[in-house]
Amino acid sequence: MRIIECVPNISEGRDKAKIQAIAAEVETVEGVMLLDVDPGASTNRTVITFAGEPEQVVEAAFRLIKKAAQLIDMRTHKGEHPRQGATDVCPLVPIAGVTVEECAQYARQLGERVGKELGIPGYFYEYAAKNEERRNLANCRKGEYEALEKITTAEWKPDFGPNIINEDVRKSGITTIGARDFLVAYNVNLNTTSTRRANAIAFDIREAGRVVQENGKPVLDANGEPKRIPGTLKSVKGIGWFIEEYGIAQLSLNLTNINITPVHVAFEEAVKKADERGIRVTGSELVGLIPKQSLLDAADYFLKKQQRSLGISEKEKIKIAVKSLGLDDLAPFNAEDKVIEYIIEKKMGGGKRLVDMTLRAFADETASESPAPGGGSISAYVGALGASLGAMVANLSSHKRGWDDRWEEFSEWAEKGVYYQQQLMALVDEDTRAFNKIMESFGLPKGTDEEKAIRSKAIEDASKYAMEIPYRTAELALESMQVMQRMVEIGNPNSITDAGVGILCARAAVLGAVMNVRINAGGIKDKSFTEPLLAKATQLEQKAEKIEADVRSKIGK
Prior knowledge:
- The chain is an alpha+beta fold.
- Helix content is 51%, strand content 14%.
- It has three domains: 3-179, Formiminotransferase, N-terminal subdomain (Formiminotransferase-cyclodeaminase, Chain B, domain 1), CATH 3.30.990.10; 184-344, Formiminotransferase, C-terminal subdomain (Alpha-Beta Plaits, 2-Layer Sandwich), CATH 3.30.70.670; 350-556, Up-down Bundle (Four Helix Bundle (Hemerythrin (Met), subunit A)).
- The chain has 17 helices and 15 strands.
């Protein structure tokens, strides 16, 4: 999945009807999930959180900004929080499969559209900023709404939208759009009740460190600023506090860039610095949501420390991360409610996927009168089973007595096996979706010449996609054979036939998928598309049969 999160802050925190109407715009875009609406009466501000595919999120953000400009009048707005626009700030945050630099490009696209179509002036900040001064949100918002006149100056000419003031601009104010990294609010639990000692550890760790003092007073530098001893971790803010509810002190850390300081690095540094002060870390606590990759990275880190294979399932890795970080120290930790991708998956009806079914339910669904899932989905699934067997043999080999010094070699092969398994599992449902697209295109109206043309093109496009998906299945299944082939050659001798069965599964996946490529090519008029793909599919088939024959001969010996 390619997922970004958008967290617009609107200048309305009291009128529930307005807040609901603005937030509701998000869900008018298919595929976008509204995750949270958090209003604040005293600040007169609401934080709205939603996520989805980048293009859909950008569209949802545009609609939200438009609705907010219609319903919020900045000329009468009062609140404790700094603000200068109806949609005051609108950051895009990478979650999965997207970089923050890509988010910056999406932010600029959004800003340009807001300026041209809505006539709202604004600035780009953080990663989307066009100059260093505007990178800092506080600089962009200096003077707040009362300094609206600044858009007419050369220094603060908007990055998008008008640089003149009219009644529409007075009503909407200025919107600041940007891209930033995911912020993780993370607490580390200590076996002490001392806030003072917790603060000392936080100062050891946080980037700002601590102020140098003499005789209880700050030591100033040549510019009159307090001298500081920096902490050990970049992109970390933190303090120590005592939590009455738990009866312990905690380090309250904000990890502002988890690419620079990941969660597991912050945890390990807390363990080290606490130990130096005679204090033990007993676990940790996540406040809010976390990207899945953060927990997977933590699992990989701890597995490497144990010299264990990294080629295991995602579910097992999440479990290892939770236990290693002690995320269940104070309360049960449910990844389904804390990992942002899992929340999105649940909202998208993830349980309805073929790959979420039990083995029996999947077999029953395949055997039913419905034409899908069919041979294409089964080919992908068989291929996934083959790759799973390859990963299994690699994992068994990494644990074989006497082979301890080879754990990294086998771990790499196991990781490859899991990669192919995951890719092929995704194609189980994608093949059925491709078939359904063809059926949907056949259902389009065909009365007028224009409708006929639209219907014909939709059928052609859907048929091409239905040809591409099984071709991708065949490609991946063939590539996966390298894992099983290598395990036959160097893996645990006791599991050589398991690798052989994996090869047979992969070969069946290739041949089955190629059958689907050929049958789906029949309805496509564009031969310049079908002929090269058919030729390459035949080559995949031939290579799979050659590898299978080679492996069978080795196992026979």
